[in-house]
Amino acid sequence: MIALLRRDLQLAVRAGGGFGLGLAFFLIVIVLVPFGVGPEQTVLARIAPGILWVAALLSALLSLDRIFALDAEDGSLALLATAPIPLEGVAVVKAAAHWLTSGLPLVLAAPVLGAMLSLPPPAYATLVLSLLVGTPALSMIGTFGAALTVGLRRGGLLLSLLVLPLYVPTLIFGAEAVRRAADGLPATAPLILTAAISAGTFALMPFAAAAGLRVNLR
Amino acid sequence: MSLWEYANPRKFMAWTAPVLPWAFGLAAVSLTVGLVWGFFFTPDDFRQGSTVKIIYLHVPAALMAINAWFMMLVASVIWLVRRHHVSALAARAAAPVGITMTLMALFTGAVWGSPMWGTWWAWDPRLTSFLILFLFYLGYVALWEAIEDPDTAADLTSVLCIVGSIFAVLSRYAVNFWNQGLHQGASLSLDAEENVADVFWFPLLVCIAGFVALFVALVLLRTRTEIRLRRIRALDARSARA
After folding, report:
1. What pTM does this model have?
2. H/E run at residue B83
3. Could you tell me if B179 lies within 8 Å of chain A, comparing CB atoms?
4. Inter-chain contact B159–A193, Cβ cutoff 8 Å?
């Protein structure tokens, strides 16, 4: 499993495009928002938590179809299916690799972008924390969606239609945590719920993702 | 002799053929009775005026929108466990009916909300969860349409339906957390203290029965169509080989 994780990470970093793309997309969305709603600090501060979370969601979505598509093309997915680790394990590793290459950079970049949207200072820690515990859920749910659509040639658009509704609870709790922190309220409850969704998806979704992979490899 | 024998496509076609006209008849009769009774022979509400009569379409449609998804969930589980093709086809057949019911509930709700709340749409937990349910339906149908091989499609949509159900319930309670609602609480429960008054309650029951019958009839009809489609495809494949 560790070998697979290292392979995926190396592929993402070296084989062009995947690694920085999500982060750049995140940045662009954040930059576009003030053009859309105007540069007033109060307005931006008010919508910053939601915008940051929605942007994180969209940039996670961007790289989802790469999770299995390339492996399915060159046949390494079939090899993984016959490998000694179960497909559920493969799904977990794939989700972890996706998170390390797309989720973690967002977590690290979020405070800077929060500053650009004039997010109130008390919310920074919560923003980082909520993304840290929330983005793994995005990766895992996305891995499930990618497993469902891996057999399709133009699965990208369908993938977003399938995955985005599944992102709703994570988004609600994650953004709510940041919003509460921005208003000076305690944000522990939504943070814990966000973490619970991540933990729950990592516990259960691999089975669904592996089921989808098995059907597609049949 | 067990219940599962009725899932054999041939048996299914045999027993649904006589049931179908009865289901449609029951739907027609109870909808006519319920709607005419509700629209013309009940008093106006003392606060809502005549707009209260939207309830006869809104509540049954919303009820069936949720139950259609639930039926799809049950059918999907049956397909995954027992591999009855009719079950997968029934789930497929129910989805567009469920979408229609969801849209109907959303639309009648907007028409009702406009005079009562002063807005067509509010980000109320119930309204929002229905919109999310609508998106789930869309994804489900899109996945069915996208995959060519019918068994693969049935498997994948079943998995999606199960996962989607969990997330639909999760979203339902998550949105409660996120915003407070304009929509009234449950007022048709049998055990609640305060409910809809009996004058509205009885025609509403008839309407609900009508919607249930209509749903059953439409799903049976659509499942029969799917089975026939499957047969035609099998015949085509056979004649192409010959």
Report:
1. 0.87
2. none
3. no
4. no
CA angle A132, A136, A137 (to 5 degrees): 120
Q: Which of B139, B159, B178 lies at the smallest CB-CB distance from A211?
A: B159
Tokens of A123: 């919310």
pLDDT tens sequence across A25-57? 888 888 888 888 888 888 888 888 888 999 999
Establish if B5 belongs to a structural domain: no
In a domain, B25, yes or no: no
Range of the domain at A11: 2-217
pLDDT score at B134: 93
Rg of chain B taking only CA atoms, in angstroms: 20
* ipTM of the modeled complex: 0.84
The answer to whether residue B193 sits within a structural domain is: no
pLDDT at residue A141, as a whole number: 94
DSSP B121-176: ----HHHHHHHHHHHHHHHHHHHHHH--SHHHHHHHHHHHHHHHHHHHHHHHHHHH
Q: Which residues of B touch A166 (CB under 8 A)?
A: 163-164, 167
- How close B57 comes to chain A (CA, Å)? 27
**Per-residue pLDDT tens for A183-216?**
888 888 889 999 999 999 999 999 999 999 988 8
Rounded average pLDDT per 10-residue block, chain B, 242 residues: 78 89 93 88 74 85 92 93 89 94 91 81 82 92 88 91 90 78 64 66 89 94 92 91 83
**What residues contact A19, with CB distance under 8 A and at least 6 apart?**
A12, A13, A101, A105
Say how many domains are in chain B: 1
Please report the DSSP string for A61-81 in residue order: HHTTTHHHHHHHHHTHHHHHH
Buried-state track A43-61, b at ≥16 Cβ within 10 A, e below 16: ebbbebbebbbbbbbbbbb
Establish if B117 belongs to a structural domain.
yes
Question: Each residue of B5-58: pLDDT tens digit?
Answer: 777 888 888 888 899 999 999 999 999 998 888 888 877 776 777 777 888 889
Residue identified by tokens 């840290």 is A132
Q: Which residues of A touch B (CB under 8 A)?
A: 144, 148-149, 151-152, 155, 158, 161-162, 164-166, 168-169, 172-173, 176, 190, 193, 197, 205, 208, 211-212, 215-216, 218
